[in-house]
Specification:
Layout (H helix, E strand, L loop, with lengths): L3 E5 L5 E2 L15 E5 L30 E4 L2 H6 L4 E5 L2 E2 L4 E2 L6 H14 L5 E4 L3 H13 L3 E6 L7 E3 L7 E4 L4 H15 L10 H18 L5 E5 L4 H16 L8 E7 L4 H7 L12 H4 L20 H8 L1 E6 L1 H15 L5 H16 L8 E5 L4 H7 L2 E3 L3 E3 L5 H15 L1
Parallel strand pairs: 5-15, 8-9, 9-11, 11-17, 12-13, 12-15, 13-14
Antiparallel strand pairs: 1-2, 1-3, 4-5, 6-7, 10-16
Helix pairs in contact: 2-3, 2-5, 4-13, 5-6, 10-11
The structure holds pyridoxal-5'-phosphate.
Length: about 425
């Protein structure tokens, strides 16, 4: 018997454990995993020590989040109970994510879950951190993944040396939505499904593993959770895990308040939440706003905000606030963190640090409250000193590529990588 089942949040219907299931009569609602047993953290090594993950027999190693009590940043902010969830590469602290962000958890859990459901390969349409995480895990797990990225994101992308043979296609004459379109057609031709985005329960539970480690270390749920959001998937995952902890009953009686942040001037969820609107506003989604932010990983125009069980519902259920952070605040916060805690962090993590500062100023977080600050990515500089990293060298394709051309391409790509 499986230790979990998948249920529809809206109608309560239980679905069989299939890869990326959808509830046919509640199309606009997220499915969630329901775990049979109380929380455990002694089931294996690394991330596999937790029982609240939708996998049975993990076949590769995956290090987890490192949660520690902050001394220096806490002192600087005059806080007494600040915990840092570090997701990145920082061997001295026991942090070994070589792709350097929490996207590694989503990739690991999604891959393992896919394998267990008989899926033979995955198509990932993404830029930056998700692409790197899936490329890394494809090698670690020995599982075929084809990655499709828009050309304009290549400049900011790097791979680990070992990932260089993972088939990566760049759509030369299109933007992000064109590359999603190409990826969709590759999926149809190859028979490999799409990685699934926010609708994939494995993705949300993987990102939610950060709070599993936090509760394991802290012994209870924090009062507040702080994170920079792009698609919102990570925040939703943490909210869902927190609900499970309340039902478990041993780790607290209130959901952690959510403090979620975006990079101004592109902050569609912040703007909508300020007006308590379930719908995002068109004017906040203008592409020219994206050109002005320093955190491309937070720039999706299709976040999981309005969907049933998405960010809007999470904010309503848990309470908390959303924050808009300027580029200047981002860079100041990155520097502050690195000076105080001793490790470099990515710009998106700087957004979270800046949001924490704002929250203390606005008193939406009190200095004595227990706080979990999610540093979603860091240690790239640290890793660069120890390991070789490469600019991604993709095969360029056109958005007008034909199905026959796709077929040939897949054939050569998979032959090369195996
Ligand atoms: C993807 C990403 C985020 C945002 O996470 P979402 O789940 O998309 O909201 C934040 N920080 C980093 C470093 C990321 O890569």
């Amino acid at each position: 018997m499986s230790h979990f089942s998948i249920i529809c949040r809206k109608c309560g219907k239980e679905l069989p454990n299939t890869y990326c299931a959808f509830c046919e009569h509640c199309a606009n609602s997220l499915l969630i995993t329901s775990y049979r047993d109380p929380f455990r953290d002694d089931c294996g090594k690394g991330i596999w020590k937790f029982n609240w993950l939708p996998v049975h027999t993990p076949a590769f190693d995956q290090p987890g989040t490192v949660v520690y009590r902050s001394q220096w940043l806490a002192r600087h902010l005059d806080m007494t109970d600040l915990y840092i969830a570090f997701n990145g590469y920082w061997p001295e602290r026991g942090a070994f994510l070589e792709a350097c962000t929490f996207k590694e958890f989503e990739a690991a859990i999604v891959l393992q879950n896919a394998v267990e459901n008989g899926v033979e390969g995955l198509i990932v349409a993404s830029a930056g951190n998700t692409a790197r995480a899936f490329a890394h895990l494809s090698i670690v797990a020995g599982f075929p993944v084809i990655i499709v990225v828009p050309r304009m994101c290549l400049m900011e992308m790097w791979y680990l040396e070992s990932s260089s043979m993972v088939p990566t296609l760049a759509v030369g004459d299109g933007d992000y939505s064109d590359s999603i379109d190409v990826a969709r057609r590759i999926a149809a031709v190859s028979g490999f499904p799409f990685e699934g985005g926010v609708k994939n329960i494995a993705k949300r539970d993987g990102l939610g593993s950060t709070i599993l480690e936090a509760v394991s270390v802290m012994g209870r749920l924090p009062d507040h959770y702080v994170q920079a959001v792009g698609s919102g998937t990570g925040g939703i995952g943490v909210w869902e895990m927190s609900e499970r902890f309340l039902r478990d009953g041993r780790f607290g009686t209130a959901l952690p308040k959510l403090h979620l942040a975006q990079n101004l001037p592109f902050a569609p969820m912040v703007k909508a939440w300020e007006k308590r609107s379930r719908e995002l506003f068109e004017e906040d989604l203008r592409p020219e706003l994206i050109g002005q932010i320093s955190t491309r990983v937070l720039s999706t125009r299709y976040p999981a905000y309005s969907v049933q069980g998405g960010v809007f519902d999470a904010m309503q259920a848990a309470g908390g606030s959303m924050y808009g952070v300027t580029n200047r605040e981002v860079f100041e916060s990155m520097e502050l963190f690195s000076n105080l805690e001793g490790v470099d962090i990515v710009p998106a993590a700087g957004v979270a640090v800046a949001a924490l500062k704002q929250a203390l100023e606005k008193k939406t977080i009190q200095k004595g409250d227990s706080v979990l600050l999610n540093i979603t990515g860091g240690g790239e500089v640290m890793l660069g000193r120890e390991k070789k990293t490469y600019n991604v060298e993709p095969a360029f394709v056109s958005k007008k590529i034909t199905d026959k051309e796709i077929e040939d391409l897949i054939c050569t790509a998979l032959k090369k990588s195996s």
